Amino acid sequence: MASQAYPAATTVAADWRDFLALTKPRVMTLVVFTGLCGLLAAPESIHPVLGFTAVLCIALGAGAAGALNQWYEADIDAMMARTANRPLPAGRMDRQSALHFGVGLGAFSVLLMGLALNVLAAAILAVSILFYVLVYTVWLKRRTPQNIVIGGAAGAFPALIGWAAATGRVETLPVLLFALVFLWTPPHFWALALFINADYARAGVPMLPAVAGQRTTRIQILLYTLPMVVAAVAPWAMGLTGALYGIGASILSAVFLLLAVQVAFSRETEPAKMKRERRLFGFSILYLFLMFGLVVADKVLL
């Protein structure tokens, strides 16, 4: 790991807000929502208490992955404006506390999922945590500009976990939802990277804009959006969802594609003026919420 550029110890005891910040609650919101939608879209009903437990385990697992990510990346977090005030680089918590918290939270989430729901859901949850921490954070992020492409699989697991928690199986629809999130991740994060590239460059993180340049990044955003659109409408084309999802997914994906095309052909180089890139990034978050909401609405209403 890179040399530490953050306080080695803290003189103020961390409080509950610092432990909450370790879990990356904003990121967790999307993870929990996609996991809940996977559970609700499953063909088999589940007792509300067990359903709540499954979603809780997904949240705890995501929080554990976030805590371990911050434990490992405290040095580069200290170099980036948007992460410098996190508990570790700001000196409000020591690294050992973050490590113990992350490991304990992860182990508890997997154990509870296995005992309350089923082994398959627990196994996928464990794989998602380990993938995010070991494959993405430790192995890929500092080594390759393709970090977010491969690492994006970590954020794609929740729908599979929710579905498996309800059914004890993995079937075609949750696999397609996994593919949707997997292919959505590069355009989502690269749109962000275009206008905060200086942060990543300062921290030495080889995000695509810093390594390959803005032009290549813009083209890659468009190239990943194309198969993402295919994955988005595939459930309808394969007869796994109804017209409500199909029409909604088609409209939302067309808007996403239009925004990606605008970014691909943009020549703006000043981060402060990158309105198209910010628009795509903002819409990409709304897009995923609406897409997964459509999956559930399609099942409930039709």
Describe the structure.
The chain is mostly helical and 302 residues long. The protein folds into 2 domains: 14-168, Tetracycline Repressor, domain 2, CATH 1.10.357.140; 171-302. It contains 14 helices and no strands. The chain has helices spanning 16-22, 25-41, 48-72, 74-77, 95-116, 119-140, 147-151, 153-167, 172-195, 197-203, 208-212, 214-237, 243-264, 275-301. The longest helix has 27 residues, at 275-301. The N and C termini lie far apart (52 Å).
User: Mean pLDDT score, rounded?
Assistant: 89
Kindly provide the name of the CATH class of the largest domain: Mainly Alpha
Quaternary state of the chains: single chain
Query: Mind telling me the C-alpha Rg?
Result: 19 Å
Per the CATH scheme, the topology name of the largest domain is Tetracycline Repressor, domain 2
* CATH A-level architecture of the largest domain: Orthogonal Bundle
CATH superfamily of the largest domain: UbiA prenyltransferase
Helix fraction by DSSP (H/I, runs of at least 4):
over 70%
Regions with pLDDT < 50 over 5+ consecutive residues? 1-5, 7-11
Work out the number of β strands: 0
Terminus-to-terminus distance: 52 Å
SS element count, helices: 14
What is the string of SSEs from the N terminus onward?
HHHHHHHHHHHHHH
Strand proportion: under 5%
State the gist of this model.
The chain has 302 residues and is mostly helical.
Secondary structure layout:
Layout: H1 16-22, H2 25-41, H3 48-72, H4 74-77, H5 95-116, H6 119-140, H7 147-151, H8 153-167, H9 172-195, H10 197-203, H11 208-212, H12 214-237, H13 243-264, H14 275-301
Helix pairs in contact: 1-3, 2-3, 2-8, 2-14, 3-5, 3-6, 3-8, 5-6, 6-8, 8-9, 9-12, 9-14, 12-13, 13-14
